Amino acid sequence: MDTKVEKVVRILDKSKKTISTMESCTGGGNAITNIEGASDVFHYSAVIYSNEFKIKMGVAKEVIDTYTVYSMETAKEMSKNISWFANSDYGVGITGMLNCSDPANPSKDPNKVYISIYDKENDTYYNDSVEVFSNDRIENKSAVIKKVMEMLISVLS
User: Fold this and answer.
1) Confidence (pLDDT) at 29
2) Are 53 and 96 in contact (CB under 8 A)?
3) Taking the model in full, what pTM does it have?
4) Residue 136, CA distances (Å) to 58, 78, 95, 100, 149 in order
């Protein structure tokens, strides 16, 4: 996976673009920070588990109330708001469940993770999801990060 992450950092650096993330279930598993030169392209990362702090970071309460915290609509809000908050060219929003339960926020699909990449210059969202089924949280995080890197390479190339 490092080669994908390295490629993302190289593409961002070459194009003089920046990125920030607002993550929930991946808990700051931001692989970009493992790469030399990441500080030139990576502005900010917010790891936010609670609905209260998602709202404080700009996610509309109405979106959470209408679609749930585990939805593409929430991921889109996260990606756009982190891009604007950190003044980054791209924002990544990740929310979902890693094959677990959350009594405070029921979900019809505890294996689905929603990913949104926001391109501020073009005011465009790139959205996808990944399903995770492992009982190992680290394996599930890795699967999500792999998907995010694949999406970023596609969006940036």
Assistant:
1) 65
2) no
3) 0.92
4) 31, 25, 18, 10, 20
